[in-house]
Amino acid sequence: MGSEYIGVCYGLDGTDLPTPQDVIDLCNSNNIRKMRIYKPNEDVMKPLGDSGIVLILGVPNEEIEALAKKSSDARKWVQDNVQKYIRNVNFSYIAVGNRVLPSDQAFQSVFPAMKNINDAIISLGLENRVKVSTAIDTRILGELKLPSQATFRDDAINYMEQIIKFLVETGAPLLANVHPYFARVNPSNKFSLDFALFTAKSPDFIYDGCLTYTNLFDFMLDGIYCAVEKLASRRLEIVVSETGWPSTGGPDANISNAKTYNTKLIRHVQSGTPRRPKTIETYLFAMFDENQAPNAIDKNFGLFFTDKRPKYPGIFPLN
Length: 319
Prior knowledge:
CATH superfamily: Glycosidases
Shape: globular
Number of helices: 10
Structural class: alpha/beta
Strand content: 15-25%
CATH topology: TIM Barrel
Helix content: 25-40%
Radius of gyration: 19 Å
């Protein structure tokens, strides 16, 4: 198991990264069958061809407004970045934007861009080959006291209503970045380290009605599910499009904690959450440390050193 539902996030914000061909070879040798990239890159797409790796392809936040304004631009984007490669590359989802918040310039353009890209996919006859979604994170929720009480922020409800309706209609999942690390180190929260690392004992468990939460990952993911259920008339699946733990660069960031989190996560997601007890498609963040990542803490989530050695044993190869 593992290779069926675990993928990796492959970012390119580094100066000393292996070549894309070496990265694809590394994935194949470690039985990594799913990948997320954050923007189109021809050097990555070529070796992906016929690799058997299933891809989430991102639309960068800075391109969203243009794709929302002109359907012709969206069609060209799909032609250049999807149709061009679809004979050899196995696409799963197009992620239109990554953790776009109400304060971001692209916020109001995400849904129109999703619609334009989906219309282009349909017009090109690709609707059975790839679905369109967007990647949110838990900052788009209001205060998360208990999963059952979770709602989207007041300034994001209309936005999420449109997106959820679209996803239900098209049969696509919602992509969600779920990072217990950031919830744990946020000083306004009181989550224990053990609760964040899947190592909690009963005194640290959190009870929500008849459901028992033994870890922060489930707590956060079920919070998103509950917020969605308050807006959706039908069930909507969620794919965890990012999760991980840094090995340095912040509180509780060390190799021991990163190994514990990722090892236990891989085992855990096979059984799902208390609210949704089914296997969760999950993408580990990230393939490598990235020394040019915009935020300092984001530089140190790598699962592999840039010389392609695993940063810690016990995770790869996936079974």
